[in-house]
Each structure stands twice: as structure tokens, then as C-alpha cells.
Predict the structure.
Amino acid sequence: MNQMQRILSARRLSHSLIPQSCFLHRRWFSTSETDASSPPLSSPHQKIQTLEDKASNKSRSTASATSSLNEQELAKFSAIADTWWHSEGPFKPLHLMNPTRLAFIRSTLCRHFSKDPSSARPFEGLRLIDVGCGGGLLSEPLARMGATVTGIDAVDKNVKIARLHADMDPVTSTIEYQCTTAEKLVDDGRTFDAVLALEVIEHVANPAEFCKSLSALTIPNGATVLSTINRSMRAYASAIVAAEYILQWLPKGTHEWSSFLTPEELTMILQRASVDVKEMAGFVYNPITGRWLLSDDISVNFIAYGTKKE
Amino acid sequence: QSYIYIYHVMSDVIVPWDRVLARQLRTNVCGSKHIFQRAWSTHVTRKVSSTAGSNESNANSTGDSPQHDIAIVGGGMVGIALAASLASKPLTKHLNVAIIDNNPLLGRKNIIEKGHLPDPRVSTVTPATISFLKDIGAWKYIEEQRHAYFDKMQVWDYTGLGYTRYNAKDVDQDILGCVVENKVLQSSQLSCVQESDLQKTIYPARLNSMDMLPSSSLTGLGEVPSTADLFMRGRLAKLELSDGNNVYAKLVVGADGSKSRVRELAGIKTTGWNYSQNAIICTVEHTVENFTAWQRFLPNGPIALLPVGDKFSNIVWTMDPTEASDRRSMSEDDFIKAVNDALDYGYGPHPETTSSGGSSLSWLTGDVNISAKERFETPPKVVKLSSERMMFPLSLRHAKDYVSNRVALVGDSAHTVHPLAGQGVNLGFADASALSRAIAEGIALGTDIGEANLLKRYEAERKPANIAMMAVLDGIQKMYAVNFGPLNAFRAAAFHGAHYISPLKKRIISYASGEQSLPLFS
């Protein structure tokens, strides 16, 4: 299937099957690029939605097609995007997962940059970038931990929401939000001490190129953190069969299982982009307590921390 | 800069054009749908407003109201415990804490003279609380004052049908608990706070009113918004005190007891009932030292005799209100006679010392533990009354929520229990420990202290445990409130069972010691 056909088929799929309340899962075929890699939904397994509508960072844009798509999409998503920060709303699973992600990031980055983990603002003086920041769920806590944060997202509405919310607290109002892509920032020559791209790479057309961009944004000896879903049988069972068909938490066709990456593949791609993966951890959801926990089980959701070679 | 009106779905965002209008908008918040926004460019950064110029950075020091991270309302044992716990953790010891308490002596160097008579207001601290106090560094101060460890407990009732003895050795511990005067607990923890790096301010005043506004954007306020501005935009809560001061804080903690004003102002409802019982407390003296905690259930309520150190003991006698006022006003000698009677042959016979473990039940009782073999003992006689007799009514009260917007409740403000098992303040210490842990975790993960999710985590940890304990205590209270033959026998049999079935007894001791927070499932 060529790229255009995939986009159109995906759109047809979405229109017919996605109930109104699930539009938030849809990725934006947004401002500058299209990504035809996978159907337009970004969700890890079960109840976690990444819900950060992210486009890929490849700029293969068919501008006229995307701009018309944009208007419609924008209108549909306006109400839903406002619920980013409603902790009991549609983004609730992401809110639940956030502390767990932050715990991993805090521990690995403190170690990497030799910062005191018992300090309240350990990232003071570090420049971090949150690629695919969505409403800023990750950027704000990182700013409170003292980091100088830049958040980018290809979806303009997300950036607006993020800006509005960050402006409510003096500590987070210093976050820089931009509606742009990693590639564009590379072209601008920006670099950061640590680059974070959580729940993005499964929606990218060319993961290898994406990782190269992330690596280019990282200073030598800097840190790169990615999280995504594993291409495993268990992920198929939970993220696709269970979530989409049995429990119907996600619309059918949300995930293209073939676009998931295994930890080994991710490690290899990052290796080729001059990033050495040092640590990996899995996220496990406990439906009884409703909490996410870090574990060694990387068979469904996993997060990887790597260092950029010199 | 041009402004654009945008229809906004988020109904909790309002724009205070000026303070008066803000108050009106606040009351109509659900209908308000207009919001000013700056013109959006793709590169959106926060610009420093240059209007106020370089005076902004000095504004905080001159004339701007002080801001605190946490305002603890109530400087009693539990409120100070929270402050001391925050002071002992590296992640939280840099916080700025305000303590609001009406007591003008709070914080002054109070030297408790060594030879003083024990105050009747004492608390039994469980081993779990003792480890908490050790962790925050307060236990060493407590050990310098009068305190009484005990390792044995005897519980029996007036029917003479049975008794139970608990021994710390049953669970391989050295002690079952320690009895400490409340003012010692409070001053020791306060010493810890005063010696720490925690920035603290004590406000000797009463809380009059409290206000929190919904969150809104800080755009246009410049680099360092003033305290009042932060309050208007919902970042801080405002507390108005009786001496006219205004205190601003990100989080307000209600540690102000069972008639909590914070709870009232936050609109948190309670459930509960009054027991038709009052308790009389006093200090008494013996001729010998007492190392055991004694409790006898009488028809109108239990009488407890707790060692407090040297040859003193503390009496907690629960009875109905008319009896209570009689006993309070009777002469000292008559009172001493009544106490000795209640602990001895009054109301009913001594239980017989049963021989250890009926052979037919040995498969059930298993390893019969030490205390099951112990004989029934009579408590030491009281020879002198050493303090005034204080009386207070008993009730059970539980707050429906422990947390609300920028508010958390700890201690008696969240839950009030019957003193029959000496658990009340231990629940409060556990609350303080859990809340400070939740705050530390929140700070570690970059959360705003007053945020709902953080506070809810504290509530989810403490509420089930507190409710379980309250249910157990209330159940015991009700079980003993009835004098009815078959029920008495059933009660005694249950007692007997608990006395001899070691696994059950171990669980009971472990639960009462605070080692496990839920009676089942742990």
C-alpha cells in the first residue's frame, strides 16, 4: 500500500469505528507532516493511553492534503484536548502512569549526571527536552525538579493547552513550548543534556531516522530516554486483543502490532544512532490498586535509558 | 499584544480583571466561559514583564505577606509530629512550615522539671509509633523524661468467666508499648523541629477563616508574582488568623483535634456518635512499681491502670455520665476505695486461674505460649491520688474525607476513637508519618504539594486502616456495653479462645502494636 492509501484507509477505519469519546486517541495528521506508518492511534496496552497525539518527525508532507485534514481534526479534538489535565478524565491512565515514568527518569538521570537523589531539585542546571509533550504532563514535573525544560509537539492544540496550564504555576511557567518537530530542532542546531521521547516511537514512520534525530539533539555524553510498547505476544494479547476487541477500551485498529519495536530492535537502532542503552525497565499495571509499578517485566510496556557516545 | 476572546470549556479558569470582579466570577464560575489569551505564536515562551522593573525581586521582602509551603493548624502531638517528620527527611527539610496554635507557650523553651508529678494526660505509644519517633529523632528526648515501658497486659471482666494475659515474649518482642505524658511527647518533637533546618514560623493565634480559589493563569504578573496574586490565581490558600495576620500556604494541614476548625471550614462532613460514657483520668500512686497494663471491663465501662513510671500509674475509667460526675466530686479517699474496688472484687469475682491448655484442644491451640500459662494476678493497690481528676466525654467521629482542595486532615480531626485500647494518638502518628511520606514522594516526582492526587494517596493509605481500627474498637465497646447472661458467657468464651489460640493472639498483639495496619489481610 502506498502512503496515501494507508492514510485514507486509516481514516476510513477511524471514522467508522471510533466512537466519539475515543477521538482523543487519534494522532493528528497535523500541521507539517504526515506519517503513514501506522493507523492514527497511539496507545500502549490496556488502559494506558499515551494519548499524546504525536505525529512522527519525518517531514514528508503533502501539504494540501494535510491542511484540509487539519481543519476537521482540529475542530473534533478541541473539546477533548482540554481534558489533558483532568486527572479523572479520559487521560486518567496516563496520569496514573506518570509517577512511575518520573521515578525511572529521576533515578537514571540523577545517576547519569551525578546529582544528589535526595535533593528536591536535582535537575537544576540541566536542559531537558520532552519530545511529543502533549499537554505537558511530563514537562511540568521535570521543571519542578529544577530542569530547564523545552517541550515540543507536532500538534498545535496540545502546545496551547500545555502553555496555558504551565502558566498557572510560577515554577512551571518557565517551560518553553514549541509546536515543531525533532528534525526541525536539529536543523536549528539545538542540543540538550537529556532528550526524552516517551510513547512516540511506535507512531513514527521511520524509527531509525527518528532515533538519529533524537541522538543529534543530545549533547555528547548526554542521556536519551525512550518508552514504547514491546512487539511481543503478550502485548498483542493485552494491547490489541484485550484492549480493542474484548474490553473495547480502544477502537479496533488502534494499534498496528507490526509497528511496535522489541527492546532488542530499539537497542540496535539506538546503537546505530550512537546511543548506548544502559538500562531498561517495564511498567506493569495492577488493576486492583489502579497503580503502575516499575518492574523487570519488559514484555509489554518498557522504558529505556541510554547515553550518547562522545 | 492583542487579546483574543476564546470560548473555553474549562470552567475552572477565570480571569480576575480586578479583585472584586474576581470574587463575583468565582461564585459564578460554572457559567464563566470567557478567557483572555495572548496571541499565540508557534514559539510560546514566558516573557518577563518589564513593567515592574527590577523592583519585582525586592517586592517579596518588603511588605509582601510571607508564603509558606505548609501551614499546620494545631500544634499538638500530631501536628508537631508532622513537622518533625518533614524535618527529618532530606527531600522535605527545606520546606517552609507555619504552625498555627492558640497556645502562647508553644515553642518557648519549656523545661519540664524532673521531679514533677505525672500529668494525667498520657498516651500509650505502640512499638510502631516508637520506631516512628526514633526515626524522627525524638525518642532520645523522650527517654530523658519519665516514661514507662510495659511488657505485660492483663484484660478481664467483672463476670469472672475468664481473663487474658498478653506478654511481649509471645511475639518475641521486648515490650508491648510505652506510656508517656502528652506534654513530653509534644515537647520532644518540638525540640527536634527547632534543631532542624526546617524553616518554621509559629503563629500563636486561632484560625478564623480559610480561603482557596480555583486555579487560573499567571500570565501578565511578571517574573515574581506577589503572594496576594498567587492566592488570587489559586496557587496558595489564605488563612485569616485571630490576631489579624494572614498566612498563605500551598497546603493546609488540619491537626487541630476532634473539633477541628480546618475540617469545618473545608466543609468536610463527619459521621459518628457520642458514647453515653465519660472518662475520668487521674494519676495514682502505689507502694510498688507497676510493669503491667491492666484493664477490667465493668458493667458501665472499662477501667484501665497504666504504668507511667516510678511508682505512679495512670487511671482511665470509663463510666456513664452521672457516675462520672459523682466520682469526680467525691473525696479522695472514697475515690481511692472505689478504684481499688473496681480493680479487685467489685462487681464480680476474680476469674479462676485456668491450667494451661485443655488437652482436648491442643491440636487447635498448638504451641501454648507463655502468657497462657500465667496465673491471674491482682493489680497493685492504689494508695494515693496524685493529681486532679479530669473528665471528658467519649465519642466516635470519622471525617468522610481526609483531604480536600489544598487541605489534609491528620489525627483526631480525621478520626476520634474510644480510649479503651489506647490507640487514638497512635493512629494520629501513623497519619503524620504517611502524610509526610506522601509529600516527600510528591516532591521527588515534581508534584505541586497541594495537588489532589498526592493528597488522595495519603487518604487511600490511612483511611482503610483507621476505619478498620475504629470498627474493632467500636465493636469491643458495644460488646461490653451489654450485661446479659448468654452474651457474657459468649464474650468470655471468645476471650478464652483468644487467650489460648496462639496464632490469633499473636495477630492481636501484632495489630495492637501497630505492626500491621489492618486486622485482616495483612
About this structure: Residues 1-62, 356-360 of chain B have pLDDT under 50 and may be disordered. The interface with chain A takes residues 8-10, 13, 37, 40, 42-46, 90-92, 94, 215-219, 224-225, 230, 233-235, 441, 443-448, 452-453 of chain B (CB under 8 Å). Residues 452-479 of chain B form the longest helix (28 residues). Chain B has 16 helices and 23 strands.
